[in-house]
User: Which sequence fits this backbone?
């Protein structure tokens, strides 16, 4: 029996060694791929994105936005960016592995992603420790840029978006009593809810009831009936657009006609697609206003639709801008060096992107104006 | 408010009950838990979305299409994953459980690839019709769902007890070998069972699509787990138990939200089954001591 | 020369080792005929206990891990006792339900667990170890390693030792009276009872051992990741763990080890098919059950490979 035991261990050890051996080798010899070539700056940017699983729609939009920006930037010729895209499947563990893979490649200049805040919380401290710049394009939860020096984001935090939307909504409707509903098993909606609740308390609104829902649920009638019976002036809903749209649909069917104020994740053309007329009356703050008449937005919409056959949402737009911000910093850094790049990026100020005027504050968080939009007659219009 | 919540609870409970009927039928005859049932239900819902939304078919045709597709899935499930395991030596009783988990993973991710990750709206004019009773708005769909669940339950009970095929089915459930010696074509009966159970999943899928206007690849798991809890609650393989268990769960969830903490909604099904397993393992309507098969 | 000590590979290696522990945590109860789908829940108990203790009370990591594993083990006993009445699929579903209930509690107990936002800043084993050796005046550069490499190497070695010790224990146990009792219960409970085996004791023992191991793995997971949230311990995790054991071979411990290694590596090596990964998983499970329900590795295969005769008591 001992013999078998020993053999088992031997097998184990061999497997482990094989793993290590299979893994060496790769790293050698690609030195110098980064660097100047006839005036163009070459850089490899790592991307960790949620490409398979329940939330793959977000990751898809993000990578599509990035790829569109990449082809445009490379066409302009000043810098040449190569994207190395890894899938995280929405799991913190896999996001960490994927980013380790990227970080251990010395040619990777910086990282964009991961998609979810839960993944970002696991990955960013590691990147910060290794001195690799990392930027979230969709991570709006509290406490992201505070992780470290090398951690940035261009996604507008809920702490910026939600109060703006709530103030404007209350100003116009004169609402005094609000009901709240939020997804309590998702980091984004949970953190959005906390911001909402705090803002509501600060504004002196009366919170009538707080309801929760969970992922994969399709029946919100029980919560909505309860809300309906408290007769709110306004409903604060921290939900992702997928669930949020269904909530609105069921609410309207039930006869709840008051406006909804949503967080960042609620803002998508998909809301109209899913809920139809029921989506009217949704108020959100957003860096991205797809119906805008501005030429750069119209152009972007056109190009994006031609390429992927669908209209871009904010995730695509933010990712698109993120790569431009990186390219801009790279130009100012002058060479593809991690340290120089980090300094250049941190100094980003008054960058004119698709989403408007953009700067980083001292901890790497977003400074920009947010627009408040609402859905009216089946499309997004600017909120007045 | 009470009346409205009661209607919400009964609607939800009826859907749970129809899903649970599918589980219980397969368990009653084959003694296995079909973990893929929730995903078959989800596929049924998607067929409804596609036929009404994209192709613009009328509702009755969507029902027919959904039943056909889920029946085919049921047939494939039986043929490819369950039959190879049956009667094979050395196959543990856990093999079908794991095998159907495989099918559920496959179906969920396949529909994810085909239909995309997000929610799809289910638009039919039928779902918009409502009547006012006093202060309460009742949608015709809600009544239809309740009626269909009752009809299915009664129909199934009668079919099982009165018809020849139903008797053969029960004989097969009792003892496969004896039934086969007595001239029952057990293979056919088993295939029929899985097909009927799957078709009921398809019906439930369309009903959910109509009632809640949301269909996504992930919905199978959520409702499948609940269905699982219900058949334990009501007693494995018991038609009446599935119905009562479904309504009980639908009502408890709704009233938990209405008068308690909505955060624990998903836990209530499992708290109930953990309790029932400890107090009365055979379930509310189960007759004999449950035996692991 | 030491370039091959690459954090990425070591990270994957560490996850593989944690997954081996998880696979073994399913294997042990299974060796006495109990299918537990609650390992994700027990894992969560271990992870949260250890993370909360180390964050809030500055407990040393190893004490936190021990506490996490023990608490999971104790819960295993508490759950294991009444679950004795349940067999087969009933037990599987009850434990599945238990796992879900535990997750929902993590989500809702916001004052303690911060809900779905999760716990950030869980002390990481590697960095603590680095500080420890630095306290002795040792610097990684003394053996020609970067800090980063050294940290990951230490974690890997530590986990490797824990896994080795666990496997050693399980294998030793299998060839003792306890292990033979387990397998006799698995074969035929009634016969085992009539032979004078205390079924209750041994079933609870194996169930609690599984819970303990899952808790241990969870606690280590927390301190390797540095961040945990309830979604780490969902139904999907439970199924994934089950697949490790079932795929590799549920009759022999080496099967669990093989399953965990192979299935953790596969998505990494085949990142290009990662989009279809779960579809492949699903098909694989179905085919496997139809063709080889005992999993890839079984006693006969091992015997043929190594020319080892199955000794008395066997390697079950």
Assistant:
């Amino acid at each position: 029996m001992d013999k078998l035991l020993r053999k088992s261990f031997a097998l184990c050890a061999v497997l482990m060694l094989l793993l290590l051996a299979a893994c060496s080798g790769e790293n050698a010899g690609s030195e110098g791929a980064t660097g100047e070539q006839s005036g163009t700056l070459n850089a490899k940017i790592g991307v960790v994105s949620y490409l398979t699983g329940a939330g793959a729609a977000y990751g898809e939009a993000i990578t599509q936005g990035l790829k569109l920006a990449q082809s445009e930037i490379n066409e302009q010729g000043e810098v040449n960016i190569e994207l190395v895209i890894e899938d995280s499947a929405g799991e913190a563990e896999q996001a960490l592995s994927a980013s380790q893979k990227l970080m251990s490649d010395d040619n990777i200049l910086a990282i964009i992603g991961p998609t979810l805040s839960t993944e970002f919380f696991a990955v960013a401290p590691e990147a910060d420790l290794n001195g690799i710049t990392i930027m979230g394009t969709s991570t709006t939860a509290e406490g992201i840029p505070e992780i470290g020096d090398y951690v940035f984001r261009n996604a507008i935090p809920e702490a910026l978006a939600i109060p703006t939307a709530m103030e404007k909504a209350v100003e116009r409707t004169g609402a005094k009593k609000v009901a709240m509903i939020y997804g309590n098993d998702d980091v984004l909606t949970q953190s959005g809810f906390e911001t909402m609740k705090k803002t509501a308390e600060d504004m002196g609104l009366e919170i009538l009831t707080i309801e929760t829902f969970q992922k994969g649920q399709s029946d919100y009638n029980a919560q909505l009936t309860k809300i309906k019976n408290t007769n709110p002036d306004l409903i604060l809903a921290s939900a992702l657009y997928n669930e949020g749209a269904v909530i609105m649909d069921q609410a309207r069917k039930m006869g709840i006609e008051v406006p909804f104020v949503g967080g960042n994740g609620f803002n998508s053309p998909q809301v109209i697609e899913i809920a139809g007329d029921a989506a009217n009356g949704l108020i959100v703050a957003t860096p991205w206003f797809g119906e805008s008449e501005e030429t750069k937005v119209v152009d972007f919409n056109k190009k994006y639709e031609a390429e992927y056959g669908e209209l871009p949402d904010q995730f695509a737009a933010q990712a698109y801008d993120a790569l431009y911000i990186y390219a801009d910093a790279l130009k100012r850094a002058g060479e593809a060096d991690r340290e120089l790049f980090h300094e250049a990026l941190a100094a980003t100020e008054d960058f004119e992107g698709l989403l408007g005027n953009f700067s980083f504050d001292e901890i790497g968080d977003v400074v920009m104006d947010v627009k408040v939009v609402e859905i009216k007659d089946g499309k997004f219009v600017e909120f007045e | 408010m009470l009346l409205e919540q009661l209607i919400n609870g009964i609607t939800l409970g009826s859907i749970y009950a129809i899903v649970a009927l599918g589980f219980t039928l397969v368990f009653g005859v084959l003694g296995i838990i079909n973990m893929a049932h929730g995903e078959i239900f989800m596929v049924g819902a998607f067929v409804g979305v596609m036929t009404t939304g994209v192709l613009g078919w009328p509702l009755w045709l969507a029902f027919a299409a959904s039943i056909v597709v889920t029946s085919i899935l049921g047939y494939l499930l039986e043929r490819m994953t369950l039959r190879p395991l049956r009667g094979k030596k050395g196959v543990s009783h856990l093999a079908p459980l794991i095998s159907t988990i495989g099918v559920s993973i496959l179906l969920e991710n396949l529909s994810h690839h085909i239909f995309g990750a997000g929610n799809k709206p289910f638009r039919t004019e039928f779902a918009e019709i409502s009547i006012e009773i006093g202060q309460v708005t009742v949608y015709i769909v809600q009544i239809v769902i309740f009626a269909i669940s009752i009809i299915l339950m009664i129909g199934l009970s009668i079919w099982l007890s009165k018809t020849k095929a139903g008797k053969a089915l029960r004989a097969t459930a009792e003892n496969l070998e004896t039934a086969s010696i007595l001239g029952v074509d057990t293979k056919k009966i088993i295939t029929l069972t899985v097909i009927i159970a799957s078709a009921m999943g398809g019906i439930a899928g369309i009903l959910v699509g109509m009632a809640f206007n949301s269909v996504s690849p992930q919905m199978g798991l959520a409702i499948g787990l609940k269905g699982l809890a219900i058949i334990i609650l009501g007693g494995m393989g018991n038609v009446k138990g599935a119905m009562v268990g479904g309504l009980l769960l639908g009502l408890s969830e709704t009233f938990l939200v209405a008068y308690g903490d909505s955060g624990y909604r998903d836990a209530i099904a499992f708290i109930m089954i953990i309790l029932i397993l400890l107090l009365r393992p055979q379930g509310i309507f189960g007759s004999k001591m449950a035996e692991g098969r | 020369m030491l370039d091959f000590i690459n954090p990425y590979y070591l990270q994957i290696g560490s996850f593989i080792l944690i997954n081996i522990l998880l696979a073994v945590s399913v294997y042990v109860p299974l060796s006495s005929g109990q299918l537990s789908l609650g390992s994700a829940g027990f894992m969560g108990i271990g992870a949260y206990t250890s993370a909360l203790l180390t964050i809030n009370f500055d407990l040393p990591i190893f004490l936190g891990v021990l506490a996490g594993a023990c608490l999971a083990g104790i819960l295993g006993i508490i759950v294991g006792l009444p679950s004795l009445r349940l067999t087969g699929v009933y037990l599987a579903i009850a434990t599945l339900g238990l796992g879900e209930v535990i997750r929902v509690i993590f989500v809702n107990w916001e004052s303690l667990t911060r809900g779905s936002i999760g716990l950030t800043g869980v002390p990481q084993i590697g960095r603590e170890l680095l500080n420890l050796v630095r306290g002795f005046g040792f610097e990684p550069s003394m053996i020609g390693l970067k800090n980063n490499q050294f940290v990951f190497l230490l974690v890997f070695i530590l986990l490797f030792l824990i896994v080795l010790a666990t496997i050693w224990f399980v294998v030793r146990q299998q060839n003792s009276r306890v292990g033979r009792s387990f397998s006799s219960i698995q074969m035929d409970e009634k016969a085992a009872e009539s032979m004078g085996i205390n079924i209750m004791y041994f079933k609870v023992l194996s169930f609690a051992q599984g819970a303990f191991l899952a808790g241990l793995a969870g606690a280590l997971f927390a301190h390797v990741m540095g961040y945990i949230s309830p979604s780490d311990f969902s139904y999907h995790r439970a199924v994934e763990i089950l697949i490790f054991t079932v795929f590799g071979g549920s009759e022999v411990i080496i099967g669990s080890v093989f399953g965990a290694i192979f299935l953790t590596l596969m998505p990494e090596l085949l990142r290009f098919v990662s989009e279809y990964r779960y579809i492949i998983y699903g098909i694989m499970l179905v085919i496997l059950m139809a063709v080889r329900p005992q999993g890839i590795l079984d006693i006969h295969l091992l015997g043929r490979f190594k020319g080892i005769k199955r000794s008395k008591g066997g390697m079950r």
